Amino acid sequence: MIGQTARQASVNYITEEAQGKGIVTKSVKAILDYVFRELGLNRVEIRCGVHNKKSRAIPERLGFVQEGIIRDGEWLYDHFHDLVVYSMLAKDWLANSEK
């Protein structure tokens, strides 16, 4: 979802078929390049389940900053679970991607 007035977006991904192949990481990287370079957005956020190591590995691999935990942030299956919030700012992405 892209918020033009706030100049920020969130990225969500759910896939089991692509796990371990780098497809989601490459896709998120392409999205970041597009929203920062073409759309001029300032911030992208990813939220992952605290215990979902595979989902958390993607923003961590791409250099996102972990901002905190949203307690009971999402209803999944039959219970609430906590979410980790990660963010990337345009200035950080552009500085690191040009190295």
From TrEMBL:
Q: Which residues form the signal peptide?
A: none
GO MF annotation list = protein N-terminal-serine acetyltransferase activity; protein-N-terminal-alanine acetyltransferase activity
One Pfam family from the UniProt entry? Answer: Acetyltransf_3
List keywords of the entry alphabetically: Transferase
Which superkingdom heads the taxonomic lineage of this protein's source? Bacteria
Q: Where is the N-acetyltransferase domain?
A: 1-91
Q: What is this protein called?
A: RimJ/RimL family protein N-acetyltransferase
